[in-house]
Amino acid sequence: MSHPPTVQSPRTGKSALRRFVDAAEPWFYSAPVLVLILAVMLVPLILGLSYAFRDIQLLNPFSGGFVGLKHLQALSQDQAFYRALRNTLWWTGASVFLQFLFGLILALLLDKPFAGRGIAQALVFLPWAVPTFLAGLNWAWLFNPVIGPLPHWMAALGILSAPDNILADPHLAMWGPIIANVWWGIPFFAITLLAALQAIPRDLYEAAEIDGAGPLQRFVSITLPFLAPTIAITILLRTVWIANFADLIIVMTNGGPADRTQIVASYIFTQAFRRLDFGYASAIALVLLVLLLAYSMVIVIIRQRLIEKD
Amino acid sequence: MASIALSRVGKSFGTVSVLNEVDLAIEDGEFIVLVGPSGCGKSTLLRMIAGLEEITTGTLTIDGERVNERRPKDRDIAMVFQSYALYPHMSVADNMSYSLRLRRRSKEIIAQAVSAASAKLGLDPYLERRPKALSGGQRQRVAMGRAIVRKPKAFLFDEPLSNLDARLREQMRAEIKRMHGELGATSVYVTHDQIEAMTLASRIVAMNAGAVQQIGAPLDLYDRPANLFVAGFIGSPGMNFLEGRCEQGADTSAVVLPKGFRLPLPLRIPAADGEKVTLGIRPEHVTVDAQQGEIEAAVELVEPTGLGVILHLLVHGEPFKLFSTDRALIRSGARLRIGLPRERLHLFDQAGNRMAAL
Predict the structure, then answer these.
(1) Which residue in A223, B71, B201, B320 could disulfide with B313, CB within 3.0 to 4.6 Å?
(2) Is B353 a domain residue?
(3) What is the pTM of this model?
(4) Contacting residues for A98 by C-beta, under 8 A, at least 6 apart
(5) Closest CB from A204, A210, A222 relative to B72
(6) Does residue B226 belong to any structural domain of this protein?
(7) Could you tell me which chain A residue has the CA closest to the CA of B77?
(8) What ipTM, to 2 d.p.?
């Protein structure tokens, strides 16, 4: 065993330079990572936020000046924005709820042993592997009475009075992207909930069965409490995700008919890439960011409270 | 409380039989211990009684009623699991009262039952705690409390002490025994630990490879093991076996060991001349005698246990154990002369079954 020679530093009379080097040393070690984080995350974020206070229109070469809160003032008067906000609530709520519900049912089914379970589990994951753009096109075609079977089936079942395209119906159009989104998003819930389900010790179910609990009581008093943390975190994630998720709407309805399926995220897309008004789009994005941050904070606080109560 | 009867109860998965037909009548208030090595089918048998495992063949009756097809909750039995299987999100009191709450008993009855059980188990200070804030021994008590509260027809224990350290296991073992004395509840207890089996059981069911080997009182199994498996499994350190051939004389027999050593027996054994037999003797019954000892042995290893010493010997090149409370024997590498008291010998035939008693 050999020991490295130890450097004896005099305890007294540290020079100012020495003290600075001592204090700065950890920062130098972490500098590469800090610089990377700043460059990759913060700079684009701040630049993007700054657009919200500038007049940036791609087709106007004289734009680019600082306009202060003008965009936000315009936004507060923008009825299309408020409608998009309401649509976002509707779109996010319905999508997350249905994805969760079907995901949970699927996870419970896949948790029971049966022949071919391995293949079934792999197949369930399939929609997740389909690019959202393709999924949107596919569902748009399925809802199209000229080439898709769905309107005819729905008419035959009496759900629709005639085999029309629901994507063209202002009252029903939102259901198109929601259904596509539910189809696409079920695997996420199914797989994460299945993983959580499989972590529940079997003994507990057996003990409860002997204690006299029926299937429903076992679900309520064992399965749900064990799943609760996973449910909370997946719903939080998916809510933020879906509120921001405009792909399916852009592909399937492009916000129409008559802005009936315009959500905030697709409204931002429309403002930025169709009207080419980046400044206004950034202002909307800023508002959406603040709303989602507030939502996340509320959820995090509630979760913290629950953990402390435990 | 109730009696449990198993009649030709067996279990198989497809064509693979994991449990041969078992016949067992458990009387009201008996403490039955199913003991055997891992994979012998003892836990499967217990789970079949509980209703957690389907019964492939035979009949299971509790209090004379056939319960093969009844669901676990309708059999009115309680079970204590090796992992305790406590509900982690419920307090100790809620864990214990869960079954009563499911049965919609009144609040007063539940509170009374829980406080009676918790007083008996010394759990009063922990009633509001969650299981994760308890030690292993306390969790074990809660698991037992959960069973007691219900006043079931029978208690089933699935290796309940295996996760505890040696000291605590000893303590809980005594507590289970005391509790059985107080409640007089019919109990079926699964363990791989023969000490637990010996100390707790009114009757032991020794099992191996999916078949019952012997059923009897603990000392019966110790004194008169039915076959080589039971002889080797019960007792610690395990019984010594010496293989030899039977030599029949006019009135008495002798066993000739491989190296030509002849061991005369005081009576005639029911074996053909030249038939292979196995001699068994427990380490604690082997004597050391410098003058009279018949067999010479070399001491290979000495294990002091405090109470005495376990000597690992070589007898004619075969490993052989001796237990003695005489500490002076502690000398590794020494040579000894040992004696095999005839009345302590066990004789097994070619198939490994017990022959006539000596």
Answers:
(1) B320
(2) no
(3) 0.78
(4) A178, A182
(5) A210
(6) yes
(7) A210
(8) 0.83
